[in-house]
Amino acid sequence: MSDILGDWKRSHYCGDLRAEQIGEDVCLMGWVHRRRDHGGLIFIDLRDRTGIAQLALDPDRDPEAHGKAENVRNEFVVAAIGKVSPRPEGTVNSKMKTGEVEIEIRELRILSEAKTPPFMLDEFTEVAENLRLKYRYLDLRRDSVQSNLIMRHKVAQTVRNYLTNNDFLEIETPVLTKSTPEGARDYLVPSRVNLGEFYALPQSPQLFKQLLMVAGFDRYFQIVRCFRDEDLRADRQPEFTQIDCELSFVDRDDIMTIMESMIADIFKAALDVDLDLPMPRMTYAEVIDRYGVDNPDLRFEMELQDITSLVSGCGFKVFANVAAKGGLVKALNAKGCATFSRKVLDDLTDFAGIYGAKGLAWVKIQEDGSWQSPIAKFFTEEELKALAEKLEAAPGDLLLFVADSPGIANEALGRLRGHLGHKLGLTDPNSYRFVWVTDFPLLEWDGEERRHMAVHHPFTAPLDEDIPLLDSDPGKARSKAYDLVLNGSEIGGGSIRIHDQAVQSRMFNLLGIGEEEARQKFGFLLDALEFGAPPHGGIAFGLDRVMMILTGAESIRDVIAFPKTQKATCLMSEAPGSVDEKQLRELGIRLAARNKQA
RNA sequence: GGGGCUGUAGUAGAGUCGGUUACAACGCCGGCCUGUCACGCCGGAGGUCGCGGGUUCGAGUCCCGUCAGCCCCGCCA
Description:
The protein is of the alpha+beta class. The protein is about 30% helix and about 25% strand. The strands form five sheets. Strands 6-9-10-22-21-20-17-11 form an eight-stranded mixed β-sheet, with helices on both faces.
């Protein structure tokens, strides 16, 4: 039987007690983190979200409270009243914020008893993630995830303050909305009132925020949940949070300038780190050429080199053939890695294979400058010299080559570059290297669907100078889209939108979206564009990914209070679950028979 | 849809070549202990080795299947 709270009021958080409070009477409430029973004296480490304070219970001083403390177990919820006292000489704990003081407890109330938790709630015990997720409310008592969520709150507040001070308005948009085309799979919600019809949960508030610009709100933001029914990854959840912004009467530079300063505020507030502004900007073509991927990690160099022209006529058929067929031969120099074993090189080859590379050629530069390599014999002295010069090869270096179609050669070697950066310890977790990537291609060809797809989304404006290309060579057209990349991770992206109905219609044409289909899917946007749409553009940041980097979390689950597993289930609530036959009937839904026998 | 890793007391692990009663730690329960702070000492309880099948005289160990969690490819405008 527990005690009642009665009229006790908490006076302090546990973690806030310092030497300044010595002599004060305090009332603390929290969870028993640990109890140390010395037979006589009992110590209780009392925990709340701010930290831990040591309660001291002396049988001579307060036998009743001490007696109660004998029955206390871990994770009991207790309230305690006592006097803040200095710890006796030699017993100060310098590892604790509150280590100079303890509370001499006069009265103790057990507010709630607790079963022994299924795992220990200390920072030393590694617990399997499925167990952590099943008992998430206990896992969240642990300092690590709790401090991540506290920082997340701080970041959200910083965003609100910054954007508010810059004349943005926070406006909510519908969660029950309409399926959007071109994007990821939608989560669907059946309508009871409109049998047979479905809402879709938003993948982003894209259309609504553009309509808010047409409506004249000028600057909008929302910290908003978005939904995508796609497979999960370490940095992808089916529901995630975006910092979503849209502005009128601006160009790309305006948006990037305003937003990078918000990012700087976030880093100052969360980590007390000062960022250098403005952040560097690079075109898509440049980052692909130099790093192979559109989200390069700039914490280290190791740039890719295009050596296609150097090997186009060489004796190594693999390279020569690729060059002849319009492919790309790219190389990077892993400085000092000539020591890699055959096994490691095989692993790197397998790694490149994941991204479609059919092989990975390598060269070890020996101490005497000679080439140790299965392919060296195919090259002339001049070719070797030219390659060595281009790659700045020095004794001890490891040169790696991928020859393939441009897409595969760039991606495979680019990913390999990132992989090596990690492996070689070149990715300092306390270094933050940003880059804006601009001038993305507007369209990409989808071989399966036999049509162009929007790289960003179908409302993205082409570069002014590339508008003529829409007719002549749409695949070459570049867009006014931009991504913000941090340490190899895309943390945000956006674009200037099309605000001209005629251009928007041409865009739909290019995408193979017929007039009827366009009208049916987002006629309201096309209509709106005809009623005076200002030039506008925006951006959305993935709050979860930003938080991962700020906290150093390896999984997005560590920055979300109640995340889902890789199969998009919640181990705690056991969502998703089946529903009553009655609910289905009301929705006019009958489940198709499963292919396995019931 | 595909590739890979993991699964042994409450927890996280060890378990050799297939061989006696599956180990020690932390936690838990009981006892002792008045300055600890991941307290200490003594004792105790606690196991369908994820699940199902197979091989074998004998399976935690080998094989097949299956379930769950994780990482990756595809997918994610």
